[in-house]
Write a structure and sequence with these properties.
Structural class: alpha+beta
Largest sheet: 7 strands, mixed
Family: Belongs to the long-chain O-acyltransferase family.
Number of strands: 16
Pfam families: WS_DGAT_C, WS_DGAT_cat
Strand order of the largest sheet: 8-16-15-12-9-10-11
Catalytic activity: an acyl-CoA + a 1,2-diacyl-sn-glycerol = a triacyl-sn-glycerol + CoA
Keywords: Acyltransferase, Glycerol metabolism, Lipid biosynthesis, Lipid metabolism, Transferase
Order of helices and strands: EHEHEEHEHEEHHHHEHHEEHEHHEEEEEH
Number of domains: 2
InterPro entries: Acyl_transf_WS/DGAT (IPR014292), O-acyltransferase_WSD1-like (IPR045034), O-acyltransferase_WSD1_C (IPR009721), O-acyltransferase_WSD1_N (IPR004255)
Strand content: 15-25%
CATH architecture of the largest domain: 2-Layer Sandwich
Radius of gyration: 23 Å
Helix content: 25-40%
CATH class of the largest domain: Alpha Beta
Length: 476
């Protein structure tokens, strides 16, 4: 049987447009070990680690006529040197140069004729450092057959990975006729999909379109229960181009813990989480950023964030099926509230209300609005969902806890790591952050034209956290 993409994974391919590429990335900064670190060492790390993940040597093939979702096929001409690359920063090799490099390569689409990932070794970083920048398509990272390529580079102990026997041999790529035949068989085994596939012309468009609209209507109804009004008009929602800006912000995890200990007081103190502190910090940063822009900020002003949250107790911690263990909370960040501690308590209450009140939305529901429609019409539904996003929320904020011990690439210790999240249509900014080894690292990916002042927002995150941590208990 063909290794077919699920509707969820396929939707990430259909969401792509010339201005919205659906790959995630990471920027990992390392201390250069005494013996140095070379492209050959990085290639060896990757080569040995992908042995257990065949997906990294597979590419996507579309089915003629889009009779079914695309399939994964082995890349008979797989070339590791195409995917693992080397570059260097211009002097002085500071973080500004690294951020500009990341913005430029993340603006380029992945080649769909090859496996959907890339890794860059970036040399010339000041203070005796180097960086590894990754790009992995959302469709590839399903948590079962493959994980983000950055996870495969890292290890909990310094040293080279042990040599492994690579028994992988590519299977011959199917012909178009075979792909069509497999699609017909799959449709026969799934009557509801077959009905969608053979239903013709205007009836198909109308009936599936109605199903898409019902899905969107249900989603809007769910969001409406958690927020009294549609997402506010915001400069965070704009027509975007393909060019990006990227900003890295490093903060101390202990500062976040200190804020939680200081300000997480009262009847629900145990429910104030580090994630709440993060969101309150971002709310304060948005407040400052909007004021510097001269935007109107009144007592009731909010920025609506979509915040993916892991469902407690779900899964075994292995990462398998992670996409189905996420739920999305729509939280109004109180940028109109001048008091830092009050912002924290409002955010904590809103998050608790969303999760405990059953108002959060499952991740698969957000992406699979078109149900089991044929791929062409599924693309229609996915694009409709993307177009709706500016009406549902202003920005996406993802927070992924990481290990609190040092990780290594070979003998090189990782100093910091910054996520790079993709932008959807109408979204000028995406914020990803991760905690690692005592730090909390924010990656701000923004449209180059709509967010020329994203550096101001980055500095505002630092200032907002300082404001929270310096507040006395009970202070506003």
């Amino acid at each position: 049987m063909p290794d077919r993409l699920t509707s969820l994974d396929a939707s990430f391919l259909y969401l792509e447009e010339p201005t919205t590429f659906m790959h995630v990335g990471s920027v990992m900064v390392f201390e250069t070990p005494a013996e140095g670190f070379s492209l050959e060492e990085l290639s060896t790390l990757v080569q040995r680690r992908i042995v257990g993940y065949p997906r990294f040597r597979q590419k996507v093939r579309e089915v003629p006529g889009r009779l079914a979702n695309p399939v994964w096929v082995d890349d008979e001409a797989f070339d590791l040197s195409y995917h693992v690359r080397q570059s260097a920063l211009p002097r002085p090799g500071g973080d500004d140069q690294l951020q500009e490099f990341v913005a430029r390569i993340q603006s380029r689409p992945l080649d769909r004729r090859r496996p959907l990932w890339e890794v860059y070794l970036i040399e010339g970083l000041e203070l005796d450092r180097f960086a590894v920048v990754t790009k992995t398509h959302h469709a590839l990272v399903d948590g079962v057959h493959a994980v983000d390529i950055s996870q495969l580079v890292l290890d909990g102990e310094p040293g080279e990975p042990a040599p492994v026997t690579d028994a992988w041999r590519p299977r011959s790529e199917p012909t178009d006729l075979q792909l069509v035949g497999d699609a017909v068989v799959d449709n026969l085994l799934g009557p509801s999909q077959a009905l969608d596939a053979v239903r013709g012309g205007a009836n198909e468009v109308r009936e599936v379109g109605e199903r898409v609209l019902r899905g969107v209507g249900s989603l809007l109804s769910t969001v409406a229960r958690g927020a009294a009004r549609p997402a506010p008009v915001s400069p965070l929602n704009a027509e975007i181009g393909a060019a990006r800006r990227f900003v890295m912000v490093g903060t101390d995890l202990e500062d976040h813990r200190r804020v939680r200990a200081r300000l997480g007081q009262g009847a629900y103190a145990e429910d104030v989480s580090i994630n709440d502190v993060v969101l309150a910090t971002i709310a304060g940063a948005f407040r400052t950023w909007l004021l510097t822009r001269g935007e109107p900020v009144g007592p009731g002003s909010v920025v609506r964030a979509m915040v993916p949250v892991s469902i407690d107790g779900a899964g075994d911690g292995s990462g398998a099926g992670v996409g189905h263990r996420l739920t999305a909370c729509f939280v109004d960040l109180p940028v109109g509230e001048p008091g830092a501690s009050m912002r924290l308590h409002q955010v904590a209450f809103a998050m608790r209300q969303q999760i405990e009140g059953g108002q959060a939305v499952g991740a698969e529901r957000l992406v699979g609005l078109a149900g089991f429609a044929p791929p062409t019409l599924h693309a229609l539904g996915a694009r409709l969902g993307s177009a709706m996003s500016r009406r549902l929320f202003n920005v996406v904020v993802t927070n992924v806890p990481g290990p609190q011990s040092t990780l290594y690439a070979g003998h090189a210790p990782m100093l910091s790591t910054y996520p790079v999240m993709p932008l959807a249509r109408g979204q000028a900014l995406a914020i990803g952050l991760t905690s690692y080894d005592g730090g909390v690292y924010y990656g701000l990916n923004a449209d180059r034209n709509a967010m020329p002042d994203v550096e101001v927002l980055g500095q505002s995150i630092v200032d907002s956290l300082a404001e929270l941590s310096q507040k006395r208990e009970g202070a506003g």
